[in-house]
Amino acid sequence: MIVLRSLSRFSFRTPSGSQRSPFSGAHRFHRVGLFLLLVLLAPLCSPVLFAQKDSSGTLRGKVIDNQDAPLPGATISIRHALKGITRSTSAQANGSFLFRALPIGAYEVRVTMDGFETLVKDRVVISLGSAAVLEAVLVPQTLEHSEQLVVTASTIKSFDLTNTTSGLVIDTRKTEELPVRTNHNAVALLAPSTTQGDSDFGNGNLVSFGGASVGENGYYLNGLNITDIRKGIGAIRYPWEAVDQVQVKTGGTPAEFGRHIGGVVNMVTKSGTNEFQFGVRTVWDPRDLAARNPTTFWPDAEGNEQLIINNSEDTEEWQDYNVFASGPIVKDKAFFYILANPRRYKDSWADTSTFYTRDQEGDFWLAKLDWYITESHSIELLGFNNELETTRQSFAYDFDSGSGDAHGNTYFKTGGDVWTAKYNWHVNDTLSVSAMYGQVNYVNNQSPDSPELAAYWDSRSGTWVRLGDWVAASINTKDDQRTNFRVDVDWVVGNHGFRFGYDDEDLDIEDLTTPTGDGYYEYYRAEEDNPYGLAPGTDYVDRRVFIRGGNTGTTSSSIYIHDTWSISPSLTLNLGLRNTTFKNTTSDGATYVDIDNQIAPRVGISWDPQGEGRMKLYTSYGRFFMPISPNTNVRMASGELDEHFISYLLDVNPDGSPVLGDLIQHDIVSNGQVPDSDRLFNGEAGPMYSDEYVVGYEQQLESGWRVGARVTYRDLVQSIEDISINYGLNDWIAANYPDAPLVGGWFPLLTNPGSDVSIPYDVDGDGVKEDVFISADDLGFPESSRKYYSLEMSAEGRVGDSLLVSGSYTWAHSYGNTEGLLRSDNDQSDPGWTTSFDYPELMDHGYGDLPNDRRHQLKLYGSYRLPANFTLGFNGYAMSGRPLNSFGVHPGTDCEGDCYGRIWYGAVSFFTDGEPVPRGSAGRTPWVTNLDLNLGYRLNVGRGAISLKAEVYNVMNTQKATQLEEYGEFDSGANQPYYGQPTDWQNPRSVRFSFRYEF
């Protein structure tokens, strides 16, 4: 939402805030104990079962004789090659066996049965969140055979027929051979159909899954939810060196995952083994070898050149150090992994009037402990710290003469402690239980060294010019906490593999935002048809005072069940169900959103037509629910004072402060009081959810190549947005209480756009709230819509002995009238709180191609082993452009006299020059191509090895525009002379060097 005019130009204009959950302290631990008891007793009382997060792997298979007859009772024993931990089980009546919750890595598998030769299979690799499938063939002792036959009489199936989830699993050691940035988003972008998000939300590195916005994904580390707490945009920081494997789920996500409707990035950390290991690694991005994006001058309406995008001062240098050690505490029983990760980052940049330098320092660390107490009981402990301290210094700046006098410093502190504890109990061959408790703490504080100075910006020349010596416009203190508890059970009953569980998540949000000085000043020169009726050319100033503070909370709890039903050796049916409750509270502690019984079915079918484990046809359906963002609590349900003082501007003092004339208008957007909890959420509204349908095919060819194809359809059935109901409410009051006063201005409400509205409201001021009902037709909002279709084709294999290649092509179409929680086309990152649906007129002609609609994407990456221990890695892509708009002022021709205020949001409507320009119809950004290369060298030295690597990102330094100016008009309605010009480009060429030594 924005009020009166577009406020998205500056980040402090969309601040966030919050409140503590009522479910904390003793209440939380009572719930933990209660549900732990219930879940532990559940297998003894009821066949209704729940599930577990994918922070480990699975080994499943079948034991048969040489006549294909099952061998029930056969003993299958496994031993982790590096940890020495062992597990054993017996084959079921149909010969099947299953090991769940296995630490990732290579295992030795031994199969024995009286009257048969022992079968041994080395290096059965267990990967994160997936299953290895082993068909073990035992040879009777009475037959003649060779030792070679005994050892190799088994087959690792190419595909896990029980899995209908799409995506990829990649080992971070593999990424060392690829020119891939060291973060999970860069890895996720290797997966077919994933798309780069808007650069304003994270330097083009955030990920859109299936047309969803980049704020609708889930991120997990060792089963703990590490998604950004407040807005859900990406994940919190952590030491990347500690990550062992990454699993990217792009479709068919099972029932144990929730709170997302985009995709899932699931990771697991490294851990210790029976071998002591020590290592160091450093990464350096030298600033002198990096290129810059263009600096652009555009002519204004009079033809004068104006500096608009200044990249001439851009520099950055990144240094990342890692020292790590791991090994046994007790051989075969207890292991440790520790990492120290100091990092340093320096950069500089300039806009039209200010030069900035930034220094970031963080001493990250991580520790992991695994204790396998017995074969049945184990404990995992994980802790890390990601605090980062930043100093940003600003200077006066002129493009021709460079930086001048220093204004001062702004100090930032972000991050905090993260920890989790998990207990695993393998009760018997068919039943296992795990329980996890974890916490994520994250602060985000900003404080300038001159808090007494107000912020001044002058836009009278047509461009924004910073005035004065101020260094920050606000003082922010944000302290967020996520507490996550879950219990999970696995239970095998005949041909059914049940997974079931309960998980609970509490988000506690603290926020305090105050302005520097006496507010934020913007200087304007009135255009024709300005909102204050001023004569064109009149100078005026808008002083904004924004103060917010409070604690808010969000809680959610879920139970879920998943049944993997092996109907036959070549046919599997996955049936899942998830039931979730979401609650959001105001800063007064009152619940304003309480949505329960969010039933999310998940169904998948997988079939191997040939029965050889080399082909899989599969289909899946899933429903996914999205909670209301804690950021919405802050923006809507906390005490917020937002005032605008509009005055004549007589002159500007040398320090940038205004010489004020008479007050023109005083606007109170919010008065600082916490709104009543029962007037914030529509009583007729339901949750935000999306449906997904997938049909896919995979096959392993005789040549060893693996190929696949997948068709996906996603439908955002229902979203939750903030709307204003003041006009519909006033119509209802006039019709039912003609003597009652009408409401003035903005009256926000969370709802499903296009639905009826029902709220209690004291219409006549007698202290008793009336039941207000306004029909969807009277409100006039369209229903929200986002649809996504895609066809994806992929291939992976070897060319000769040295070249490994993975590639994919995706055709996709994303269209509708909402991107989802965020809005890329005008850079709004407040989830569910954008200009979309604020008033019905803002959605006129708002149906069309959406910002994440990349119609074509081609990806190709791999590595080539060169002589003398050298490796060449490559990663390239080509993607078509995103849709463009031409935003302008709504002409108001459909309104009846008094609607000027409800559509005067400035240039945010799908009109230009009074004519409709439907969403996404103003062309597209150009195709973007990119090629990254690296050259690695490995040298064995004594017990260890040295690895050297040089990487070049964007080798050809292609710098196609990724964003163009989409405002065809200024807020005044005057034509925007810079419309259609580039405002952002793909990242320019940069170079990275890394050194690793480990033994």
From TrEMBL:
<keyword id="KW-0813">Transport</keyword>
<keyword id="KW-1134">Transmembrane beta strand</keyword>
<protein>
    <submittedName>
        <fullName>TonB-dependent receptor</fullName>
    </submittedName>
</protein>
<keyword id="KW-0998">Cell outer membrane</keyword>
<dbReference type="GO" id="GO:0015344">
    <property type="term" value="F:siderophore uptake transmembrane transporter activity"/>
</dbReference>
<dbReference type="InterPro" id="IPR039426">
    <property type="entry name" value="TonB-dep_rcpt-like"/>
</dbReference>
<dbReference type="Pfam" id="PF25183">
    <property type="entry name" value="OMP_b-brl_4"/>
</dbReference>
<dbReference type="Pfam" id="PF13620">
    <property type="entry name" value="CarboxypepD_reg"/>
</dbReference>
<feature type="domain" description="TonB-dependent transporter Oar-like beta-barrel">
    <location>
        <begin position="589"/>
        <end position="868"/>
    </location>
</feature>
<dbReference type="InterPro" id="IPR057601">
    <property type="entry name" value="Oar-like_b-barrel"/>
</dbReference>
<keyword id="KW-0812">Transmembrane</keyword>
<dbReference type="GO" id="GO:0044718">
    <property type="term" value="P:siderophore transmembrane transport"/>
</dbReference>
<dbReference type="GO" id="GO:0009279">
    <property type="term" value="C:cell outer membrane"/>
</dbReference>
<keyword id="KW-0675">Receptor</keyword>
<keyword id="KW-0472">Membrane</keyword>
<dbReference type="InterPro" id="IPR037066">
    <property type="entry name" value="Plug_dom_sf"/>
</dbReference>
<comment type="similarity">
    <text>Belongs to the TonB-dependent receptor family.</text>
</comment>
<dbReference type="InterPro" id="IPR008969">
    <property type="entry name" value="CarboxyPept-like_regulatory"/>
</dbReference>
<feature type="domain" description="TonB-dependent transporter Oar-like beta-barrel">
    <location>
        <begin position="358"/>
        <end position="586"/>
    </location>
</feature>
<dbReference type="InterPro" id="IPR036942">
    <property type="entry name" value="Beta-barrel_TonB_sf"/>
</dbReference>
